[in-house]
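User: Hello! My lab partner asked me to get a predicted holo structure for this protein. The small molecule is zinc ion, SMILES included with the sequence. Please write out the structure tokens.
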Amino acid sequence: MVYIRWVDDFWGNCSSIGPYRKLNVRTINEIIVHCSATNCPEYGPKEIRDDHMIVRGWSDIGYHFVIDPTGVIHEGRNLERAGAHVRGRNSHSVGICLMGLDNFTEEQFTSLAVLVRILMKSFGLKEEQVNPHNKYANKLCPNFDLDEWKETHLSDGGKKWKQFMN
Ligand SMILES: [Zn+2]
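Assistant: Hello! Below are the structure tokens for the protein in complex with zinc ion.
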């Protein structure tokens, strides 16, 4: 089972994600996880981008990545640029959004683990630097228990991500 399909082949594949190190990216010291807070299947990456750009007038989608229910990872705002997803912590973070309200799929959770592991490796981050939006805002976002997800998917105990990494 391979859930990972990059919509934009910029990274090539998981093992070549290292190129981000060579880019002149900002200092990144945190990964923040969100959800789109809707069950509407038509509200995907393009609609989120339209919402952020047309409705809110931002320069681009606020998130760096959006993971759809099939586990596909969509690249959003370029990592070189600060996102717009968490008040006060945008400049040094990466924003990842899971499509959905509270019914996330195993494919999404696994893709999230792979993506987060890649980013952790690229930027030298620890698990403590992966946090939910609700740590910094009086919101429920991302509507699931990130600590529990870390235990079951991200930690060595979970090993869900290992088959995609070398
Ligand atoms: Zn959020």
